[in-house]
Amino acid sequence: MGQIHAYQMIAKDKPFEQLEFTIPEMREGEALIRVAGCGVCHTDLSFWHYNVPTRHELPLVLGHEISGTVLDGPPELEGKPVIIPAVLPCGNCELCRIGRSNICQNQKMPGNDFHGGFASHIVVPARYLAMVPESALVDHTLAELAVIADAVTTPYQVIVKSDLQSGDFAVVIGVGGIGIYAAQLAKIFGGMVLAIDISQEKLDCLSGVDISTTLNSTGLEIREIKNQVKGICRELGAPMFNWKIYEMSGTRAGQELAYALLGIAGTLSIVGFTMDKLEVRLSNLMAFDARVIGTWGCKPELYPEVINLVSEGKLKLKPFTETFPMSRIDDIFQQTLEHKLVKRSVLIPDFEGLN
Amino acid sequence: MGQIHAYQMIAKDKPFEQLEFTIPEMREGEALIRVAGCGVCHTDLSFWHYNVPTRHELPLVLGHEISGTVLDGPPELEGKPVIIPAVLPCGNCELCRIGRSNICQNQKMPGNDFHGGFASHIVVPARYLAMVPESALVDHTLAELAVIADAVTTPYQVIVKSDLQSGDFAVVIGVGGIGIYAAQLAKIFGGMVLAIDISQEKLDCLSGVDISTTLNSTGLEIREIKNQVKGICRELGAPMFNWKIYEMSGTRAGQELAYALLGIAGTLSIVGFTMDKLEVRLSNLMAFDARVIGTWGCKPELYPEVINLVSEGKLKLKPFTETFPMSRIDDIFQQTLEHKLVKRSVLIPDFEGLN
Prior knowledge:
The structure is a homodimer.
Chain A: E1 3-8, E2 17-22, E3 30-39, H1 42-48, E4 65-72, E5 81-84, H2 94-97, E6 121-125, E7 130-131, H3 153-161, E8 169-173, H4 179-188, E9 192-197, H5 200-205, E10 214-216, H6 222-236, E11 244-247, H7 252-261, E12 267-270, E13 278-280, H8 283-288, E14 291-294, H9 303-311, E15 321-325, H10 329-337, E16 344-348
Parallel strand pairs in A: 8-9, 8-11, 9-10, 11-12, 12-14, 15-16
Antiparallel strand pairs in A: 1-2, 3-4, 3-6, 3-16, 4-5, 5-7
């Protein structure tokens, strides 16, 4: 072996370039992983199309939502299936020590700080690799589990940080690739869930995971949506305060709606990203004793809890995940950009001469 | 006796009208209190000048920052000096039960829901009255302690909610009647405190409580202030992340600065109120794993902790408090409105024929 096959980003909107390079010399604490699957995330599109610069200069292999099998590294991991956390903290700094490792300033992210997962293999720090038990591989392939590395764990951390309690009213705005898991997780935590989107197709998908309370907000004014949401809350018998609102759409419209829904003792979680600013009365937070919390990635310490939920069959990934051969990377990026794919795409390495 | 003497608000900006009324029949669980002092708060000015409506219709006796002595009520309280919490929760609802009593929707506020403290006596629910131990009356008069009921406890709850830890960098924007206590409390909690204001006079006051790190932001651009704040943080040897920012000015400029200072793992507390909106990029919260929390009043459960800090001599109220006879109410409201008074004013009843 000795070679890594990969697709690297050359420049904005350009086709990915296939390359081969020698497996870098492994340092203490690193692991060599054979990639099972790598998810296509909105962050990858930010790099490829929306002018967000990668921290490592181009050309660079993108991809940070990776599952695979350890080929070389710490003996206890060898041969084991793992998820690579999208954010790999240093584990030693002040932020890591106060439980904020997800925002560690020395953190490394595959496909951003170094060559990522759109490849046959990857070398990463081994410290935070999350073991995948056999039980998690009954209903899902290892490739499908790649989405845990970002699409699932990010909303998991959000739900935990928002302190969602059983019986709370949980409003998820935007049930795309990440929001779908926010909605599922909110339900698993005991929340009374309302999903809002402008795509009826996405809302319809939710019935597969037993979430039937949805609102298609297409063409509605914020005031009207607010009235409908209040009515739904009342119908569900949920409290009219202490709402947990999750903004997953990453759009100005979504954020405006989310902020408008914030009331007494409410918590708004900002998960979707947009460069757009909006006009808000911050003092509302004071008058409502409310808060807005942002959350970046997920600390690796929480990964085992998420993998457990999948193992126990509580959290379903399969209905929202679709796998493609990695050789279709250009096509899949383009289709994702054009919002043509309803499910999260995971690319599976299919380089010639490998397997 | 049998009569309460008071000053009531008739209409916006109009002189207060002196009145006498019979002490209302006391119900189970209520207490009759002889007012020692009642502070003049910005909220009173909101009612009197800034068109914020009181919940009870006018005319109404304002004033919610009250200390006094229990004349009648539960036997264990009779004859005892007490602070009346500015926010009196019901104690039974869902919000009270989940520890959010400060935002209880059945809460009553003196001088807003019923006749307040600019009076000789007041009748209030006895449940949450905070006992004042002898030790708190060594350095302060009972009248001076009135400011605990809002000016001091509100920032106390803020500091607690922001999870300020020893060694954190704490930035207090606006060191007026409430900010001055936020700064003191942040220091007591072990924070490395920087106070920012546009009034040199207010900043100078801080030396009396051993806070020497100040920044007069008059005429400075936000970018410039930000650079100076970073420099100060570095000089203090405080961490460059996880900043605790307290916006106490209740101005658009203050909030804009506060939001701009928010960085990695930061917490911005919104305490000052303004109707002004501002344009913000909410997604910064996601990118920084940061949060903005609003806080309304202070739950009565925290009052004993604050009174303890005063008893122990750690928290100083006297340098920032000035007492006046209550008969000067018109004059003091006017001067407060015109920002002519640097210290918090407490009005002491001086009705003829009483005492």
